[in-house]
Amino acid sequence: MKPLANLSRRALRGLRLLGAFCAVAGSASAQVGQLAAPVLNNPVFKAAKPGPGGTLVLPSGASVQLNQRGGYLLSAVVMLVNAQNVKLTVVSNSPTATVTPATGALQVLDTRAVATATQLLGVISGFGDGLAQPLTQFLSRPDVVQRLPGGVKVVADPFVIGAQTQGKLLRLTIAPQQVPAGQFRPAAHVQPARQPGAVPVALRVYSDFQCPYCEQFETQGYPGVLKQLPADVSVEFHQFPLESIHPLARPAAEASECAAQQGKFWPFKELLFADRSWLSGNPNQVFISFADRLGLRPEAFKTCLAERGGKAAVDAGVQEALQVGVNATPTVFVNGLHVANPYDVASLLKLIQFARVAASAPAAQLNPPLLPAPKTPGPAGTGAPAPKKP
């Protein structure tokens, strides 16, 4: 996300640590993006009282806004007044101070406020201390602290987390990580929904033909998905050969595009994963034998292979994959929602249900925005009007 460009290398290492802790904790317990009932039934919320604007006020003084739709938890906002009535910074386990360069204002943290807020985010996420502890460490970075009054948003897969201070308020937000629809290009290889619904839902698979994990997904996971795939879901295949580690992935991808030119992409794709003989010897000879088995025009297919007629299509696929942040295969999305474990059919089907709900939700509920940064008092150039001459 763009805000990361303003963070130091040290802060980015902290962010990677945050993501790593989430990955270790596992995504099966994640609540954001799933049904809201388990969060509401958590003991933390048993003593909550209704607050203004539909918030829940906890005995700790924290206010929590759970954005729900159709029984699903879309996102959440945690708000807490710093007990010292000042802005936020974190160092170790004790209050500390730093000076905001833009204003010269002293910032002090009551670490209890931060601990309460991050622990609540841990509960809401389903990751507990696996998210709370590294999030607190991340917020302690001085260069992150300096940006908190304006707000910072970071990605900790599978979430986007926002952090902001405004006056006495500490505000944390959490939402599922989601690629905006506009970043996906129209797919070249699509199996249309058998029965299109009111809300379009697409299963987007980014794959590498030589990748062993892609082979496992295609031969073991994907058939189970197809058997239970709802009728309103379309399936897309996107090319992403990892040439640096899979030297034959590119030739296979280009061969599949040659088959696509004769309307046989999907059966050719299935052969590439089912029959791995092309991984040894001369792959082009095997590709030609596949074309013969599928009844393709042999000379047209051979010419396409020789002239690399599928190269442009594969290049476009790689460019698009990088644009949406793909860096490994298989990577699977439901609409713009990343599938944490594409081999877990039950979780994938639940994500499809959530995607239907999310597609019709207001943008502010899907990803709570940062608050507008207040104008800072001071001389000209700091956000305040220049003093008038007497």
Question: What does it look like?
Answer:
With 390 residues, this protein is α+β, with helices and mostly antiparallel strands. The protein has helices spanning 9-25, 37-40, 111-125, 129-139, 142-145, 212-228, 249-260, 265-274, 283-293, 298-306, 311-323, 345-359, 363-366, and strands at residues 49-50, 56-57, 63-69, 72-81, 97-99, 106-108, 152-156, 159-166, 169-176, 189-191, 201-207, 233-239, 331-334, 337-338. The protein folds into two domains: 2-177, no CATH class; 181-335, Glutaredoxin. It contains 13 helices and 14 strands. The strands form three sheets. It has a seven-stranded antiparallel sheet. A hairpin with a 2-residue loop joins β3 and β4 (72-81). α1 packs antiparallel against α4 and α7 (249-260) packs parallel to α9. The longest helix is centred in the N-terminal third of the chain and has 17 residues, at 9-25. Residues 1-29, 84-106 and 378-390 have low confidence and may be disordered.
Can you lay out the helices and strands and say which pair or pack?
Layout: H1 9-25, H2 37-40, E1 49-50, E2 56-57, E3 63-69, E4 72-81, E5 97-99, E6 106-108, H3 111-125, H4 129-139, H5 142-145, E7 152-156, E8 159-166, E9 169-176, E10 189-191, E11 201-207, H6 212-228, E12 233-239, H7 249-260, H8 265-274, H9 283-293, H10 298-306, H11 311-323, E13 331-334, E14 337-338, H12 345-359, H13 363-366
Parallel strand pairs: 11-12
Antiparallel strand pairs: 1-2, 2-3, 3-4, 4-9, 5-6, 7-8, 8-9, 10-12, 11-13, 13-14
Number of domains: 2
What is the structural class? alpha+beta
Backbone CA Rg: 25 Å
Number of strands: 14
Low-confidence stretches: 1-29, 84-106, 378-390
User: What is the succession of H and E elements?
Assistant: HHEEEEEEHHHEEEEEHEHHHHHEEHH
Distance between the termini: 46 Å
Q: Strand fraction band?
A: 15-25%
Mean pLDDT: 83
Number of helices: 13
Largest sheet: 7 strands, antiparallel
Helix fraction by DSSP (H/I, runs of at least 4): 25-40%
Strand order of the largest sheet: 1-2-3-4-9-8-7
Shape annotation = elongated
